[in-house]
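On clarity, I found the account of how folds are encoded harder to follow than it need be. For illustration, here is how one protein appears when written out as sequence plus structure tokens:

:::
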Amino acid sequence: MRAGQLQLAVRHPDLTPRPVRFELRQAEGAETLARHWPDDFSIRETGDGYEGRLSLGEARTFSPLRDVTAFDAAGEPYERVDSYALRLLFGTTVGEINRCFIKTHWRTPDDESLTFACQQVRDFYRADAGQRNMVSVIFGYRALDFADTDLLEEAAEWLTAEIAAGNDRPHDNHKMDGVHQRISMGMALWMVRLSLGDNPGTVRALDETIAYLRGIAQPHGLHALNGCRMMMLRAYLHQVAGEQAAGLELARLAFDFFRQCAAVAEPDPATFGEMSQGHHAAWIGLKLIQHVNKKRPLYPARKVFDAAHRVKSPSGVARLNERYTELLAWIARPGAA
């Protein structure tokens, strides 16, 4: 998927003319497109033959699109390379959506194709609220990684709508239950708001999610992963704003919340390993308290933010860092937040 277009490549050992058929499988039925090798392709030589590339048009034209398969003149499907991206783009059942998005070894390996798959869930999938929540978070992170304003605005709108809709699914799967998803969506939303340069929206997203965290009767171990990050960051923003009492209270809450989560953590190495990030955020929370008690300057802003956000792409991090600097200047002004 490139710029919304379905881009494919096929290989042949020679340039002998032959038909190539593409089957675009949708939620119901399929559409077939016929093309001819080599005339309809952009050809380049490879070491052992030729590769032809072409576009099948705007992907949204075929939504909801499950996958694309190419067939040779004999009706046999072309062998797919491991990196083939136009697969598992949509599902109509809980199991199919799990394969598309939760099982990372099944998930499409291309971020643009994954972004399109997320948009299809937003537009067409209604079977499970927890899965919609989860996919809205995945979409938010893709928008953050691309640092694309249009995608970020879509993500902000979708995450806000999912939070408002709610999810009362019980704790039968820590990736799907309503509490875990509310925390995950809140985490994604403040970063999306910040990347958009929406300072009031960033603070509001943090405050609303922290208020939700305070009301959790029985935290799960994984709740520390994002919960402690948000508490620690908001504590620091209070300090920058000169609101020392609020900052100290939230910094201590990050530590106490981590202890609550750790007390009920499951003996699973993957889950427990993820909790280390919450531990680090809680540790910085204690450093924030220490700097106040010992009348030291504010803890380094970059260390706080590096421990708070979860964006990985260089372009996404660069944009977020720039917006964070603007946020600190804004919140330091009297009456800003």
Remarks:
- The two ends are 41 Å apart (CA to CA).
- The chain has a mean pLDDT of 94.
